[in-house]
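Translate structure to sequence.
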């Protein structure tokens, strides 16, 4: 057998030995999905005392699957672009055509190493690929290529704003499966292989989190770091970042973990919190009723904010991991890692510290800016146009993001108000041409129009909202009003003068 090795140097070029044998794959057909076992969910007692929940402590670990921001897939040259026409981005290798072989994408290795460095992890200079066997219709190979035994990244930690450090166990490269669509055509399930083979980095935490709030903060912080480092666009709504949440409970003071359940593919920070809260109550209700918690895999039903069973431990798949014979060990050099470390962008917490130090922002305002995707870029572009940094930060974090969140836009990338428009509002506010109330009305008008055109001066002038500051103009207006309302003026002055008597 020919020993082959991927070696990535500082330039990131991948070299592989010549193949001396053809990779022949028998067509075993597509295995059916495991049948979901119908289990009755344990109902929480409506009259149960809330005190019983305080006797238990949550133990939570999270596995995050983040799609790497590469142009092509992990082992094939097919493009990896979201929302393209079904099956329009499928290479022969993605479709598991016999004789095709994987070729590692060096850019994906760079992005995974960058993620590891952002979390202070150990980068393993030698890692290996394994096959994880399972049989779904949207996985033509019948196995997923992953790094089960020798991952690219080990250890690390994520510092949360509440002062807690969540330890990272490992990060490894793996390929995604395709997508099955049910119900689009009556009686048929459709398969889209565009996503099949897309590069993922799986980030596995230790079970260090003790509440749903802490878990949500962990996911939000991790999402923010992946986005700001350019590793992943971290859009959970589009599925480029998904979470598998492992939950168990134990009596406070106990050291031994309880029986855990895994909630698969949760695709939102809010849903992570809701799934955990439901599971914690379900576990406690079962234990308090004297019923054993079964180890099982569950799914989160967002429409009802509950989890439902998928399979129990007895039904768990034997993945039959084995080294991938078509992929040699991945060996990277110290120079390769050093080059990525030197190019690592400013992390969100570092950026927040800089805003506090240099721009005199309050820490909570700075954190609000860096915690929102695209907000720091938007903020810095606004600052280039001259407004006061503190004023700009407050308006972005309070007013503008309020519109964005209410409209469920999701981020400032799609915001209907341009940086130039917001800067024009702030300029008029600073020069006292408009009041704070009028400024909010102008911003709302800009957002309602959504055309990203029309500066504050134009809108204020058209609506007659601009403040009049010229004293001569104000005096003339006052005189005009008094002349047009003589009776009202006399009524006001009557107690103080006889000049307005009717017989005068």
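Result:
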């Amino acid at each position: 057998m020919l020993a082959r090795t991927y070696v990535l140097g500082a330039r990131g070029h991948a070299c592989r030995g010549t193949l001396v044998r053809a990779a022949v794959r028998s067509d075993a057909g597509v295995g059916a999905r495991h049948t979901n076992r119908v289990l009755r969910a344990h109902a929480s007692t409506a009259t149960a005392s809330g005190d019983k929940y305080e006797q238990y402590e949550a133990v939570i670990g999270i596995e995050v699957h983040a799609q790497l921001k590469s142009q092509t897939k992990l082992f094939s040259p097919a493009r990896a672009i979201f929302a393209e026409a079904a099956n329009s981005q499928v290479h022969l290798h993605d479709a598991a055509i016999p004789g095709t072989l994987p070729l590692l994408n060096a850019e994906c290795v760079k992005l995974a190493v960058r993620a590891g460095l952002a979390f202070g992890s150990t980068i393993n200079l030698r890692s290996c690929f394994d096959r994880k066997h399972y049989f779904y219709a949207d996985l033509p190979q019948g196995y997923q290529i992953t790094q089960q035994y020798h991952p690219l990244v080990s250890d690390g930690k994520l510092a949360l704003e509440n002062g807690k450090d969540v330890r990272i166990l490992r990060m490894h490269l793996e390929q995604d499966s395709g997508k099955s669509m049910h119900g689009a055509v009556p009686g048929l399930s459709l398969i889209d292989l565009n996503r099949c083979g897309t590069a993922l980095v799986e980030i596995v935490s230790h079970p260090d989190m003790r509440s749903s709030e802490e878990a949500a903060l962990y996911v939000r912080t991790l999402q923010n770091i992946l986005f700001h480092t350019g590793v992943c666009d971290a859009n959970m709504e589009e599925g480029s970042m998904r979470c598998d949440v492992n939950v168990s409970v134990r009596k406070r003071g106990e050291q031994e973990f309880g029986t855990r359940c895994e909630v698969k593919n949760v695709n939102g920070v809010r849903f992570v919190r809701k799934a955990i809260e439901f599971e914690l109550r379900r576990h406690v209700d079962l234990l308090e009723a004297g019923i054993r918690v079964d180890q099982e895999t569950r799914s989160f039903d967002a429409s009802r904010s509950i989890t439902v069973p998928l399979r129990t431990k007895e039904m768990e798949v034997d993945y039959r991991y084995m080294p991938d014979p078509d992929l040699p060990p991945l060996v990277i050099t110290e120079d390769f890692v050093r080059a990525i470390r030197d190019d690592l962008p400013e992390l969100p917490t570092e950026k927040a510290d800089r805003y506090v130090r240099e721009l005199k922002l309050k820490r909570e305002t700075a954190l609000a800016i860096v915690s929102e995707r695209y907000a720091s870029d938007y903020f810095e572009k606004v600052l280039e146009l001259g407004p006061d940094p503190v004023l700009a930060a407050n308006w972005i974090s309070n007013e503008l993001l309020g519109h964005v969140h209410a409209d469920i836009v999701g981020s400032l990338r799609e915001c209907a108000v341009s940086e130039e428009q917001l800067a024009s509002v702030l300029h008029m506010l600073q020069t006292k041409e408009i009041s704070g109330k009028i400024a909010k009305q102008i911003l709302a008008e800009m957002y309602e129009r959504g055309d990203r055109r029309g500066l504050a001066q134009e809108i204020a002038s058209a609506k007659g909202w601009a403040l009049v500051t010229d004293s001569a103009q104000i005096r003339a207006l006052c005189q005009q009003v008094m002349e047009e309302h003589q009776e009202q003026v006399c009524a006001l002055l009557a107690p103080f003068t006889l000049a307005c008597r009717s017989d005068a």
